[in-house]
Amino acid sequence: MSSEDLSEMSLLDMFRIEAETQAQTLTSGLLALERDPDARDHTESCMRAAHSLKGAARIVGLSVGASVAHAMEDCFVAVQQGRVRLRQKQTDLLLKGVDLLVRIAKTPEAEVTRWDAEGKSEIDAFLAALAGVLEAGPAESQGEAPAGPAREDAVSPEPAAPPDGAPSTAGDAIERVLRVTPENLNRLLGLAGESLVESRWLASFGTALQRLKRMQNEAGRMLDGLRDALAEQALGEQAQSALAESQRRLIECQQFLLLRLVELEMYDRHSVDLSHRLYEAALDCRMRPFADGVQVWPRMVRDIGRSLGRKVRLEISGESTQVDRDILQRLDAPLGHLLRNAVDHGIEPAEERRTAGKPEEGTVRLEARHNSGVLQVIVADDGRGIDLGKLAASIVERGLTNAETAAKLSESELLEFLFLPGFSMRETVTEISGRGVGLDVVKEMVKQVRGTVRVSSEPGKGTWFQMQLPLTLSVLRTMLVSIDGEPYAFPLAHLERTLKIPRDRIELLEGRQFFDLDGRQIGLATAHQILEVGEPKLSGDIPVLVVKRGDSTYGLVVDRFLGERELVVQPLDARLGKVRNITAGALMENGAPVLIVDVEDMILSLDKLVCVGSLNKVRGEASAAERRNRKRVLVVDDSLTVRELERKLLSNRGYEVESAVGLRRRAAQSQARTGGGRFAHRARARAQAAQQPGIRGRKRR
User: Fold this and answer.
1) How far is residue 202's CA from residue 481's CA, in Å, rounded to a whole number?
2) 564-567 contacts at long range (C-beta below 8 A, 24 or more positions apart)
3) Residue 12, helix vs strand vs coil
4) What's the confidence (pLDDT) of residue 629?
5) Mean pLDDT throughout 655-668?
C-alpha cells in the first residue's frame, strides 16, 4: 500500500493541515460563544487554538499569520478577563480573522511573500479593527456601562502549554498520521470484504464432509451386517482376514475423518473470526465520525440567517456516528441544499415567530444515527412548514397536473413533486434559492448510493427530511431469493417484510390480485414477469417479498427464500449502461455470480405494467390441460357490488372469471393514474427526457 508519512511533507504543508483543524475549532467555539458569552470552556479552546496557530506560523516563517493569530489570542484573553464581551459584531470580526488565517495557510509556497506586500493593507485593516475592539472594552460590545474589574481567576495572556495528547504544532502529529490514497483504501476494503465472503466457503465444505462421515457410518453398518450374515458360513482364513482388514481400515478412515472434521471446524471458526476482524479493521479505516463532514454547516446556517435578517442556530447530534468516507463526501452537497432550504424556506422572520408564540431564534437540527443496519441522516427545522395548498397551486400553475387531480393528491404525493428537477415554490430567484435544483440533487445522490429519502411537514411546526443510506458502499446486506432457478439479491433496506401466504388469502378486485397485510391491501405481482425469466413454480404457501418505496408497496412472488447474505458489491461494467431492474452484481460463497436487484427501478416497472393493464396473475397449480378446458367468463356490470358477487359465484363454480370495468369507471381510473406520485415521476421523466411512469401502490378502497 502506498502511503505518505507526514515526516516527508514540508513545514508549510503541515501548517496547512493544522490551520484547517484549528480553524474548525475556532469557528465552532466562536459560534458557541455568540450564543453563550460566558462559556469559559469555549473561550479557553479558542485561545489555545489561536496560540497554537501563532506558534506554528512562526515556525514556518509566516509572520503575517503569526500577527493575525496573536491579535486573535489577545482578544480571547480579554474575553476571559471580562474586558471584552463577544456579540455579533465582534464574532463577525473574529470569524473574518479565521478566514484570513485559512487563506494565508493555503497560499502556495512561492507566493507567500506576496502577503507582505499586496496583502499588507488587508492585514493592517483587520489588526486595527481588532485593536479597536480591545480599546473599546465591554461598554461598546455590551451596549451598557463598562463592566467591573477583571476577575481574579483570569487567565494570563500567554497560555500554558497544551496538556498531553493535545498537539500544539503540526510536528507533534507526525508519528500519528498517515496519508493513504482513497483508491488504496477502496482496494483494501474490497479485498477484506472478499475475504469475509470467501471464509464462509469452509462451512459448506464442512457440511459436505459431514455427509461423507454419514456415508462412512452407513458403510460400516453394512460391513457389520455382512460379517454377521457370513458368521454361520465357513469362511477361509484369507476371506476372514480380508473382512477384518476391511473393518479395521474403515474404522481408521472414520477416526481420521473425525479428527480432520474437528480441525476443520476449529480452522473455520478461526478463519471467519479473522476475516471479520480484518474487514472491521479495514472498514474502520474508511469510517469517519459524522462531525468531520459537518464542521462548516453551523457557520453557514448562521451567515445565511444573518443575510436574511433571521436568528438561526444549527443543532448537530450524533457527531460521533461513524460514516463511510465516500458517503460522507457525497453528503456534502445534499446537506448544503437541505440546510439552505431550511433557513430560507422554513425559518420565519423574528416578528412572525413572536406572533406564532415561538422563540425569536429558529432552530435547524442535523442528526445522524445508525438504525437497523442503515445510516439515518435527518434535517429538520421548527419553521413554518410547507403550505400544501400553495404547493398544489404551484403544481397546477406549472402544468404538471390539473386542479381536479391536484385536489385528490395525498400529502406524501404532493411532497413528492418537490424532488422534480427545476421545481421551486419561490417566485423569484435569489442567491440562496429559487432555481429548483436543491432537492433534485438530494434525490439523485440518495439514489446513487442505493438509499431512500422521505419528507414530511406540519404547518406551523416545521419540516422533516430523512435520508436512509447504507453504512458502507462496498458490502450490502441482502435477502437472497431464487427466481426461475437463479439467485437474486434484494437489499434489506428496501424490504418491508418477507412472508409466506396461503393461496386462499389472495383476493381479486377489478381483475387485480392483492392480499391483506395488517389491514392494508397489498398488490401482488410475480418477480418473474418483472425480470422476464419464466413462470413461478409454486407449491403450498407462496413466498412473498413486500417491497416499499415511498407510498408504493407491492408483494413480489418468488420461488423460495435462500436467506440473508452480506455481499461484496461488484459494479457492472460501464459499457453495459443501465441494466433495467438490476443495480450491481456480487459473488456467493461458492463463487457463483448473483445479481443485486434495483428495487426502485423494479417498482417503476411494476407501475408501468399496472398502467397498461398487463400485470400477470399468480396462477394455481392447475395443469395446462385443466387451464385449457376451464371456461372463461367476462362479467360486465356498472355496479361494483354486483360484479364482485357474480365473479365470486362463477369462480366457485370453476370458471375463470375476468371483470370488465365500465367506461365511466375506466375513465376515472385513468385520470387517477395521471395524478399523485405517479404523475410526479412522469413529470420527472419528462424533465430527464426518459419515459418512465411513476409511483403507484396506494390502498384500494
Assistant:
1) 22
2) 564/477, 564/478, 564/479, 564/480, 564/492, 565/477, 565/478, 565/479, 565/480, 565/489, 566/196, 566/197, 566/475, 566/476, 566/477, 566/478, 567/197, 567/475, 567/476, 567/478, 567/489, 567/594, 567/596
3) helix
4) 65
5) 56
pLDDT at 674 over 60: no
CA distance 295 to 121: 30
Confidence of residue 129 (pLDDT cuts 50, 70, 90): confident
Residue 527 half-sphere exposure toward CB, CA atoms < 13 A: 30
CA dihedral 28, 29, 30, 32 (to 10 degrees): 90
Rounded (10°) CA dihedral 74, 78, 81, 84: -170
Euclidean distance between CA atoms 402 and 232, whole angstroms = 97
488 within 8 A of 602, measured Cβ to Cβ = no
Higher-confidence position of 537 and 376? 376
The runs of H, that is alpha helices, within 312-437 are 325-330, 332-341, 350-355, 388-397, 403-408, 411-416
Amino acid at 439: L
Q: Of 351, 406, 422, nearest to 384 (Cα)?
A: 351
What is the rounded end-to-end Cα distance, in angstroms, of the chain? Answer: 61
Residue 328 and residue 290 in contact, taking contact as beta carbons nearer than 8 Å: yes
List Cβ<8 Å contacts ≥24 apart for 626-631: 627/656, 630/654, 630/655, 630/656, 631/655, 631/656
**pLDDT of 433-473, one tens digit each?**
544 456 888 888 888 887 888 899 988 889 999 998 888 77
Helix (H) or strand (E) holding 512: strand 512-517
Q: 291, 329, 322, 323: which is closest to 182 by C-alpha?
A: 329
β-bridge partners, 289:
322
Listed as own residue / partner, the contacts of 32-35 with beta carbons closer than 8 Å and 24 or more positions apart are 33/79, 33/86, 33/91, 34/86, 34/87, 34/88, 34/91, 34/302, 35/313
- The answer to whether the beta carbons of residues 488 and 595 sit under 8 Å apart is yes
Phi, psi of 126 (to 5 degrees): -65, -45
User: Residue type at 121?
Assistant: S
Spatial separation of the C-alpha atoms in residues 305 and 31, rounded to whole Å: 13
Contact at 8 Å (CB) between 453 and 473?
no
DSSP bridge pairs for 524? 555
Cα angle 51-57-61, degrees, rounded to a multiple of 5: 150
For the segment 139-197, what is each residue's pLDDT rounded down to a tens digit? 554 444 333 333 333 333 333 333 333 334 333 433 455 667 767 777 777 777 777 77
175 membership: H or E segment, kind and range: none
Compute how many other C-beta atoms are within 10 angstroms of the C-beta atom of residue 563: 8
Q: Is pTM beyond 0.85 here?
A: no
Which grid coordinates are listed for 131?
485593536
Q: Can you tell me the distance from the alpha carbon of 26 to that of 685, in angstroms, rounded to the nearest whole number? A: 46
Strand-pairing partners, residue 557, are 526, 544
Q: What is the CB neighbour count within 10 angstroms for residue 89?
A: 11
| Nearest residue to 423 (alpha-carbon basis) of 686, 691, 697, 673 | 686
Phi, psi of 500 (to 5 degrees): -115, 130
pLDDT (tens digit per residue) in 287-308: 888 888 888 888 888 888 888 8
Q: What is the pLDDT of residue 668?
A: 43
> How far apart are alpha carbons 157 and 89 in whole angstroms?
23
Task: Tell me the C-alpha distance between 55 and 317, whole Å.
Answer: 33
